[in-house]
Write a sequence for this structure.
């Protein structure tokens, strides 16, 4: 159902006046109140709302932390200690921001997995999916920049390792990689100059993310949400108005998510981090294990699985960029993996191999760990480049319902008759 | 199936309950975000300072920093105290004591600008009440103005030996900060 | 052992250990055993008496080499910590041997004519400084080794070692549910009680001591604790284990002085979120009952 028309009626002179000049209430009403939402969405569809909340939380806590943080190599670590000890509720705001980054990534991975399972990337949602991958890339950049700011050992050495990756471009064009790295660093090694510019970019990117999120929501509202059957809304009985039905569900899911969030903030705030980042950065001492934050681990494993430096970099970036092409790599006519008995199991194996790569990313790349990383990396790319195109063509899908209503109510009620209360709800205020 | 109205009431109550409960949480979340902008613990720790007066000889003055402001501490000579006491209150452009420890309307007598039995000690905030320059008069060679106290070079305000404005554009006497003697030779400011 | 040669050799060893990047072979340092701490878990809190004893150990033993520069003297009397009376903390600060440098004096001088840096006694608002002005001075005194500042030492260390996949799969959820954050404290306790004679087949570098739990098993710090070293006033045992326990608890507080406030706010927030979730769940169920 594209471009849903709002049923908004201005109810006062002021509202009419505003509606003629900036129809924002009309838009909000049409897009977020009586917007037809599939009635069979499960809780995996609540993560969009959760992610918006996470972004807002990170921006608010981030702006507040920036009132106290000092992006200078000699003062950064101490300024954070001051936040932890002296700033009123500083410890709380800092914990929320640090844990919030991890929660943001937990939510985005679940959100992406939902998209992969239910075929939410398939036509007409290709642009929606691509915008999502762009948001994901921006999130990874923001997280990387943010982790530098405490200027601990992991901050410093993580930046050193990852920026050094660009020097692998020297194998392509001599000198290019080194010049890029020096340009990023602002010097001949990672230093306070690097820190200062990373702080500036870290403050900037979340607002870029917010802009792309707006486009993402716009693209979504043009084509409408997918749903677990993969069958589009055909009649009124297939949907419910977004408010209050989906909103209520989103609120419940958000608060449950907050329980997990709060558990980490108050009882395990450093669990998801690394102890070495409480040691001040020392350019002369390399930590025994340089590990990125957990949400980068799968890609770190892929990077180290390939024996050549340039090959590893290409594989690592390739593993993210390949996501952009999924709408065209998957040849299946059926959207939802619920009805794709063969693809489903390859997908589960894919999720397992990503988790395995995450585990392996924290290990030293030798022996059995290296072997498993290589197998899982191979499967990762094979899943997209071989399995997706081939299985889509050769698979026979399971029998599918004819509509969402049929899937929810059973074969008897095939869209005839509107259930009491559902569509009638918005008029009843 | 329950009647429409009964259904509606129950649903509305729960929605309202959940919604208002959530709003309470949102408000509570707002508090730390506002409070974090207030002075932090290390700033508050320096909100009070102790100053040892024993190195200040009669006729000498020192300047210390308190909450980012310069504080003039002068050990006045007998002549300076007398001069301050002999001034008629009606000759003062600002009749108010400007002493944080006294009520607003307390008159600007020298007694109201010092501590009882410690009239030789004058403790003032060293910021001109005109536009905020730091008046001269603390060091031996400084200009002290026509009234023997302090002189602000920015726009020519003259303060007397009790720190009260006598001549020039400044509207108010130099302020007396809150302080007390914790011993004969030590004061605590703030 | 001749002190000068021992120190010189320990310098070389310490510098070597500092500059190399050893890949930890599994089993090089022993598995860190877990202790029970009063501040662990959901109902964690500090034992005031233990923090006071721990500070005494820090002051009499550790402060000879290690600073605590992110802790201010006033923190010692604030709620949530050892809560010493403010007057005694004032006196302690004034008598603390490592004084505060306030910048050039009114004559623009930094040092006396004999080259001694002009400093003033510490006050409540000042940090608890270690014996050396800077890293280079410390390394010079300890021939290359740097006694780290202990302000966040329990956060900067961990007990996690390479485990099997099964250990990770079981241990991770268990640790998250328990809120296990005491890895640094467990490590510190293990280190302080882990001094022993080196095994026969191991050659210790000059000036180094053998420690079961230090990565590489050779540590530049000689065993700091001995039985009876610190005289406790409250009758607690004066064993190495007790000292290690108390000073680790004190350092855990030093690294996380807001722990009690955090955990006490935590359960209230969780309770609130739980109630709100249930309310939203009930509202959602009522609402959707009509649709399904």
């Amino acid at each position: 159902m594209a471009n849903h028309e709002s049923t908004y009626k201005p109810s006062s002179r002021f509202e009419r006046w505003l509606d003629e000049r900036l129809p924002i209430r009309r838009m909000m009403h049409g897009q977020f109140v009586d917007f037809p939402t599939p009635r069979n969405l499960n809780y995996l569809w609540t993560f969009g709302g959760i992610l918006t909340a996470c972004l807002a939380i990170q921006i608010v806590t981030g702006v507040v932390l920036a009132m106290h943080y000092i992006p200078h190599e000699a003062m950064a670590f101490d300024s954070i200690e001051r936040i932890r000890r002296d700033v009123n509720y500083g410890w709380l705001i800092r914990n929320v921001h640090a844990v919030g980054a991890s929660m943001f990534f937990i939510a985005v991975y679940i959100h992406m997995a939902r998209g992969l399972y239910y075929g939410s990337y398939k036509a007409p949602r290709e642009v929606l999916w691509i915008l999502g991958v762009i948001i994901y890339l921006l999130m990874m950049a923001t997280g990387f920049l943010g982790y530098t700011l405490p200027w601990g050992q992991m901050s410093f050495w993580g930046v050193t390792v990852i920026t050094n990756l660009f020097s692998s471009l020297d194998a392509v064009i001599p000198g290019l990689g080194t010049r890029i790295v020096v340009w990023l660093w602002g010097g001949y090694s990672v230093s306070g100059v690097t820190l200062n510019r990373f702080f500036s970019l870290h403050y900037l990117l979340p607002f870029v993310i917010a802009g792309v999120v707006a486009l993402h929501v716009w693209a979504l509202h043009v084509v409408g949400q997918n749903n677990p059957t993969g069958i589009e809304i055909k009649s009124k009985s297939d949907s419910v108005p977004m408010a209050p039905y989906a909103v209520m569900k989103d609120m419940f899911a958000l608060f449950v998510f907050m329980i997990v969030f709060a558990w980490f903030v108050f009882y395990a705030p450093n669990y998801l981090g690394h102890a070495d980042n409480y040691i001040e950065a020392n350019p002369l001492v390399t930590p025994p294990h340089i590990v990125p934050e957990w949400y980068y681990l799968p890609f770190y494993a892929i990077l180290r699985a390939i024996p050549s430096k340039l090959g590893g970099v290409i594989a690592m970036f390739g593993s993210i960029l390949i996501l952009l092409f999924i709408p065209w790599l998957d040849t299946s006519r059926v959207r939802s993996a619920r009805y794709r008995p063969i693809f489903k199991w390859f997908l589960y194996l894919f999720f397992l191999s990503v988790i395995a790569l995450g585990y392996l990313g924290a290990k030293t790349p030798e022996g059995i760990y290296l072997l498993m990383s290589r197998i899982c990396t191979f499967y990762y790319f094979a899943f997209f480049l071989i399995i997706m195109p081939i299985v889509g063509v050769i698979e026979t899908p399971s029998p599918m319902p004819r509509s969402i209503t049929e899937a929810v109510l059973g074969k008897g009620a095939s869209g005839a008759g509107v259930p009491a209360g559902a569509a009638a709800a918005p008029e009843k205020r | 199936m329950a009647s429409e109205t009964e259904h509606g009431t129950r649903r509305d109550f729960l929605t309202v309950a959940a919604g208002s409960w959530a709003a309470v949480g949102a408000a509570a979340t707002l508090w730390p975000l506002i409070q974090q902008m207030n002075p932090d613990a290390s700033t508050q720790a320096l909100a009070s300072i102790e100053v040892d007066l024993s190195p200040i000889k009669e006729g000498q003055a020192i300047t210390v920093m308190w909450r980012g402001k310069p504080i003039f501490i002068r050990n006045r000579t007998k002549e300076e105290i007398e001069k301050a006491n002999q001034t008629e209150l009606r000759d003062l452009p600002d009749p108010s004591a400007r002493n944080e420890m006294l009520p607003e309307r307390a008159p600007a007598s020298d007694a109201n600008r010092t501590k009882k039995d410690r009239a030789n000690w004058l403790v003032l905030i060293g910021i001109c009440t005109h536009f905020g320059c730091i008046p001269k008069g603390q060091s031996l060679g400084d200009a002290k103005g026509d009234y023997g106290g302090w002189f602000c070079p920015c726009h020519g305000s003259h303060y007397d030996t009790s720190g009260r404005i006598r001549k020039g554009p400044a509207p108010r006497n130099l302020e007396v900060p809150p302080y007390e003697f914790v011993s004969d030779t030590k004061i605590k400011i703030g | 052992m001749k002190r000068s040669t021992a120190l010189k050799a320990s310098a070389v060893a310490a510098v070597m250990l500092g500059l190399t990047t050893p890949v930890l072979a599994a089993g090089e340092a022993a598995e860190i055993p877990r202790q029970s701490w009063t501040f662990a878990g959901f109902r964690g809190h500090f034992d005031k008496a233990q923090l006071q004893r721990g500070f005494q150990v820090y002051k009499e033993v550790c402060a000879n080499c290690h600073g605590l520069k992110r802790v201010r003297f006033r923190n010692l009397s604030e709620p949530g910590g050892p809560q010493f009376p403010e007057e005694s903390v004032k006196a302690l600060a004034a008598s603390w041997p490592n004084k505060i440098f306030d910048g050039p004096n009114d004559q623009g001088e930094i040092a006396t004519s004999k080259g001694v840096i002009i400093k003033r006694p510490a006050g409540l608002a000042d940090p608890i400084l270690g014996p050396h002005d800077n890293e280079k001075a410390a390394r010079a005194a300890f021939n290359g080794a740097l006694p780290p500042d202990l302000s966040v030492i329990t956060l900067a260390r961990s007990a996690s070692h390479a485990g099997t996949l099964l250990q990770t799969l079981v241990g991770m959820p268990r640790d998250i549910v328990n809120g296990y954050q005491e890895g640094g404290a467990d490590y510190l306790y293990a280190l302080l009680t882990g001094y022993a004679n080196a095994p026969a087949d191991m050659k210790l570098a000059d000036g180094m001591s053998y420690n079961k739990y230090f990565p590489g098993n050779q540590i530049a710090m000689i065993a700091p604790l001995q039985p009876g070293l610190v005289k406790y006033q409250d009758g607690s045992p004066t064993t190495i284990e007790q000292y290690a326990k108390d000073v680790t608890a004190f350092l855990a507080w030093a690294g996380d002085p807001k722990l009690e406030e955090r955990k006490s706010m935590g359960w209230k927030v969780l309770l609130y979120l739980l109630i709100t979730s249930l309310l939203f769940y009930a509202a959602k169920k009522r609402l959707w009952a009509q649709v399904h």
In short: Chain B touches chain C through 14 residues (CB under 8 Å).
